[in-house]
Design goal:
The protein is α+β, with helices and mostly antiparallel strands. The chain contains seven helices and ten strands.
Amino acid sequence: MLTIDELKSKSADRLGGLHPVLLAAANVLIQRCYARGIPIVITQGMRTIAEQNALYAQGRTKKGSIVTNARGGSSYHNYGLAMDFALLLPDGQNVSWDTNRDGNGDKLADWQEVVQEAKKLGLEWGGDWTSFKDYSHLQLAFGLTIAQLKEGQRPTAQQVKETLSRITGGEPEVNKDVEVTINLNGMKLTVGVLDNGTTYVPVRALAEALGAKVSYDPVSKTVNVVTV
């Protein structure tokens, strides 16, 4: 069986862009499921508007089965507030979406055990939806609707603090030093670092992409950003 660090590394590329609290929840969920003998991987995390629209087209204007009813901007994935998971098989390479699989032999479906742990962390499960069930989907909406997110509303600082504390048991360092992808208008711009709930971004890359001019004064050690 893989070590917990080896297991986490399999999800690392898909954790970038998640809201810091959901990122913490993902790490705790992987750890708790691992302790129950159920290795899981995160198969989807942050999704750009373009990626969401491409997924929406599947089964409609493109070949394949319909896998979502959400257009770009209408999925919690587009705001870093949702993720999908799958069960990692014993070979350590392939995954399974078999909701009846009992890999740890405790006479309980592994999938439902993962869902139990996710709900303990306060995550919503797509399998509880009535109109379109998404069994691999987990989200942390902070009580916000898609309409509110589209309007620019985001979780308050107090919500973030309280939820993060509940999930990590007062240990926010699970978020420390995680490389994240920075997207601008759905396109990858650069990478940053998530450290204890704060995202650090190269100011020149972001400012110049937004049309500003950046200069550095070595005497005062000041970075100046001037909008055009």
